[in-house]
TrEMBL record:
It comes from Bradyrhizobium symbiodeficiens. The keyword ATP-binding applies. One of its GO terms (molecular function) is ATP binding. This is histidine kinase. Keywords: ATP-binding, Kinase, Membrane, Nucleotide-binding, Phosphoprotein, Transferase, Transmembrane, Transmembrane helix, Two-component regulatory system.
Length: 468
């Protein structure tokens, strides 16, 4: 059986985190939106300027055409066919050369100048009309005479403010589009974050999925319709994985249970043998096989055990119980085991039964490798740590990670273990978000250290001697 949590990450999985900003969906959208804002911030004022200028030109032409219509009404044909033009006093000031803002020209069909607000000749008037005057013209038929009335405004005149509005648009009005677009960008970011909030919640749920919590499924409530097929497919994949885990765990547990009965029968039959030496050798083999079966059952139970995040226990009481239970095993091998460290309770987050199995396997492993007539120390620290020290040969540096793999043994010729004890220790540490480390001692031997999370100090502490 392999635990998902102990498997190596697939190659390339770490590359996703090399550029988190670029990989982020929000930042991709924001980056593209910034580009859009920059483009809009440049072209929107230009478009507005063009629209405003076009509208002003149209209003100006309409105003000039209306004035030309008024002037056309003042042209009268006399009985001899002569045209006369009479400008009322109310309009003379507007077209006076002293004021200089408005001008008019009235010409016949051949373009000859009939009436004008300025006294210059037609040849002299034309250049000024094309250079500084902008206006409109209307054509009328008066008693068979075609006349063309043209009214213009000098845009350079001090009283003309429309042109100033256009020219100052960028400086006084155009800039306002930039903060408006930035506010829109900030609003979009908030909207994007709210939109993907269900995805963030689903990712938090996914982080809790593991071999011990295969029952968790990603929530589908409020998931965007475009993402829902992916979430549904993931949940279906988790259903299949859970079924596979269930079959695997059940097979291990069933196999271990089924092996217990043949081993018990075999132990009974060995007792009938007359050869004492052979009987003792077979007994040793039976004990090894029984230990292997017990460890397989232990692994199956650990895989199905769900840890309550709020559960706490007394680490020192757990270690004291382990030392008391394994002491006869150590004494039978002419070795000793001692509990050291703090005498006060040490409350940690964890399950007492799982912790007992982890500390028991560490102690049993230390007793196997420590020299005769030496002591194995189990030290409990106030920081939530457990240190198990032996006086054995130590562990080579290249083997310090291998020893926690299932069924790994440095010496394959040894028959006193199957290489499962330390893998159980690592599994318990992973389930408790704890760490396990090993190092050699200066005077010889090895030291295994388990570090657990301390419980909050606000929690009530049981009296000394209370077990976990």
């Amino acid at each position: 059986m392999a635990r998902i949590g102990s498997q190596a990450r697939p190659q390339g999985a770490g590359s996703y985190g090399r550029s988190p900003t670029f990989k982020s969906l929000i930042w991709r959208i924001v980056f593209l939106h910034i580009l859009a804002v920059a483009v809009v911030a440049i072209f929107l004022p230009l478009v507005l300027f063009w629209l405003l200028n076009s509208e002003i030109d149209q209003l100006h032409r309409d105003a000039m055409r209306a004035q030309a219509e008024v002037l056309a009404e003042r042209i009268v044909a006399q009985p001899g066919g002569v045209l006369t033009f009479h400008l009322p006093d109310s309009l003379k000031g507007l077209y006076s050369e002293a004021y200089g803002r408005y001008q008019y020209d009235i010409r016949d069909a051949e373009g000859r100048l009939l009436f004008s607000s300025h006294r210059r000749s037609a040849a002299a008037a034309a250049p000024r009309s094309s250079e500084s005057i902008s206006g409109a013209a209307v054509t009328r038929d008066i008693d068979g005479n075609t006349v063309r009335i043209r009214v213009a405004e000098d845009l350079a005149h001090r009283d003309v403010i429309i042109d100033d509005i256009v020219s100052n648009f960028f400086r006084r009005v155009g800039w306002i589009t930039i903060p408006i677009l930035l506010i829109l960008l900030a609003t979009d970011i908030i909207i994007f974050r709210r939109a993907i909030a269900p995805l963030l919640k689903a990712s938090e749920e996914a982080s809790n999925i593991g071999p011990a919590r295969t029952d968790i499924r990603l929530p589908t409530e409020q998931i965007p319709r475009e993402i829902l097929p992916l979430v549904t497919a993931v949940n279906q994949a988790l259903d299949r994985l859970e079924g596979g885990f269930r079959v695997q765990r059940q097979f291990t547990a069933d196999a271990a249970h089924q092996l217990r009965t043949p081993l018990a029968i075999l132990r009974t039959r060995i007792e009938t043998l007359d050869d004492r030496a052979a009987r003792q050798a077979l007994h040793a083999d039976i004990e090894t096989m029984s230990r292997l079966v017990a460890q397989l059952l232990e692994i199956a139970e650990l895989d199905t055990l769900v840890l309550d995040p709020g559960e706490t226990t007394d680490l020192r009481a757990v270690c004291a119980e382990v030392v008391a239970s394994i002491a006869p095993f150590a004494i039978a091998q002419h070795k000793d085991i001692a509990l050291r460290g703090t005498d006060a309770p040490v409350r940690i987050h964890g399950n007492a039964e799982m912790l007992q199995r982890a500390v028991f396997n560490l102690a049993e492993n230390a007793i196997k490798f420590t020299a005769k007539d030496t002591t194995v120390d189990v030290e409990v620290g106030e920081d939530g740590s457990v240190r198990v020290r032996d006086c054995g040969p130590g562990i080579a540096e290249v083997e310090r990670e291998l020893i926690f793999q299932r069924f790994w043994r440095a010496d394959r010729r040894r028959s006193d273990g199957a290489g499962l004890g330390l893998s159980i220790v690592r599994a318990v540490a992973d389930d408790h978000a704890a760490t396990v480390a090993v190092e050699n001692l200066p005077g010889g031997g090895a030291e295994f250290t388990l570090r657990f999370r301390l419980a909050e100090r606000a929690e009530p502490l049981p009296s000394a001697g209370g077990g976990g």
